[in-house]
Amino acid sequence: MKINVLTFAQTRTQLGFGEKVFDCEPNETPREIFRRLAPEFDPGKTIRVAVNQEYADWDQPVGEAFELALIPPVSGG
Amino acid sequence: MKINVLTFAQTRTQLGFGEKVFDCEPNETPREIFRRLAPEFDPGKTIRVAVNQEYADWDQPVGEAFELALIPPVSGG
Amino acid sequence: MKTHIEFTRAPIVVPAQKNSSREIGACLEFSGIVRELEHGKTIPGLSYEAHEPMARTQLEKILRELGAKHPFEEIFFIHRLEFVPVGEASLFIRITSRHRQASLAMMAELIDRLKADVPIWKNSETV
Amino acid sequence: MKTHIEFTRAPIVVPAQKNSSREIGACLEFSGIVRELEHGKTIPGLSYEAHEPMARTQLEKILRELGAKHPFEEIFFIHRLEFVPVGEASLFIRITSRHRQASLAMMAELIDRLKADVPIWKNSETV
Description:
The complex is a heterotetramer, with 2 copies of chain A and 2 copies of chain C.
Chain A: E1 2-6, H1 9-15, E2 19-23, H2 30-37, E3 48-51, E4 54-56, E5 67-71
Parallel strand pairs in A: 1-5
Antiparallel strand pairs in A: 1-2, 3-4, 3-5
Chain C: E1 2-8, E2 26-33, E3 37-38, E4 41-42, E5 45-50, H1 52-69, E6 74-80, E7 82-85, E8 89-97, H2 100-117, E9 120-125
């Protein structure tokens, strides 16, 4: 299946793209997908992941998700 | 000495005037002055008194005060 | 910390916004509006009276006290007196500060103090 | 409880005030303004980016959650994106409610939640 991967702020710099479509399997977790597409990238404890625009678990399979987004610490306002 | 007495809201209705000049002595307290000029009036626990535009004690002599005001519970805003 | 205290018998005119400093990060404005129902009764408006010089003195004291805890840049405080029809503002407060927390805490505490200690009274005028 | 959420790339235009109900007693407005000093450095402004659809979803969820505790009449939430020069607003929030407490609590908690959970980021642009 295809999944749209979005990055923002410092994660866009780290990964070198803002939006890209990747292949993945429904039983893959966000952590596994990012390990595959950006082996150097470590989310640490501060970067969250969103699946279909909801905060999600790094270790929960993505299922039929259409979108995966890296959410570094936010700073709106 | 002369003292200017002000009343507001329900105390104006109770005393029947909004502003009036009275004679008093520096060693009289607000309670004594009001007992003399409005014997029926009872400040109870909710009506405060202001001497020279500062909240004051009902039982403290007024001294050289120029103004005595009855301050029923306030409701601005 | 600049303060402006005003009492008016006409509809409140919100003062123009000009930032006095490039370090202001928050501007908070509150309008208190007269509601149609007062203790379950429909009213045309509220009438306000004040001991104006004492209200001003008390407000200045309260602003000094609260400003020591919540440093602000500038406060506009405007209270309308006499008759205020339903739907119009009886009170307007603007607070500017570097950080939002000071404005928010200041606003909440200032209105609490206003309603406890500043000699202003409302009387509902029933039809 | 009506909510309006808007993202704009132009200077924020404060929406006209029309009271939707004669039972509104409080109108609270917050503007978040870009300050000149960011971590001790002078900046010309800040650039904001957002995951816009997710930011909107998160805000709607937060407004539902907070509205259950602090019943409000209407909320306007406007966040500016891209470059915002010093002295201009990056954020505008208007909350109307029957009583002031709901607007004040809502405003404080909404901004806290915005700064914790809504996918919007600022980047300072140094000269």
